[in-house]
Write a sequence for this structure.
């Protein structure tokens, strides 16, 4: 049911924890399944993501997608990080079962929430970034339908 990569990131997740010097922190939940994800970003003066960590209180697929998403955004500029969509995370994990697509949405939204927090603090705009929702449970069907 799960790819080897999903199992690997679930069993040995990368970048677990908190960042004390994070300048972007985002928390997103899904009230339907009760899962919550928090992403910490440490972004340097050139808007490059120097470090990234996560804490996820959720299912195995949510842990695996958080782990992969943090790996994908590290070293990228904030603008490049916008390309780390849930689709990109799923592809990097060699896919997810349809019932678990919403878990990868949590990762995308948590990264957006952390980027939004950073942009607010810095007084900048990141193209394509909109204010994230704190609870994605209401909207997941709209997005998941396209897969
Ligand atoms: Fe909700 Fe996976 S079951 S994030």
């Amino acid at each position: 049911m799960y790819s080897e990569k999903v199992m690997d990131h679930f069993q040995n997740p990368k970048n677990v924890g908190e960042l004390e010097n994070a300048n972007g922190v985002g928390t997103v939940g899904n009230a339907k399944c009760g899962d919550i994800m928090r992403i910490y970003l440490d972004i340097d003066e050139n808007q490059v993501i120097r470090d990234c960590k996560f804490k996820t209180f959720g299912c195995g697929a949510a842990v695996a997608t958080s782990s992969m998403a943090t790996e994908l955004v590290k070293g990228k500029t904030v603008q490049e990080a916008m390309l780390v969509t849930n689709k990109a995370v799923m592809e990097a994990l060699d896919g997810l079962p349809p019932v678990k697509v919403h878990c990868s949405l949590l990762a995308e939204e948590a990264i957006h929430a952390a980027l939004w927090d950073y942009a607010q603090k810095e007084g900048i705009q990141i193209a394509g970034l909109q204010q994230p929702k704190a609870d994605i449970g209401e909207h997941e069907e709209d997005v998941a339908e396209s897969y």
Notes: The longest strand covers residues 35-43. The CA atoms of residues 14 and 67 lie 5 Å apart. The mean pLDDT is 92. Residues 30, 33, 35, 58-59, 61-62, 102-103, 106 surround FE2/S2 (inorganic) cluster (CB under 6 Å).
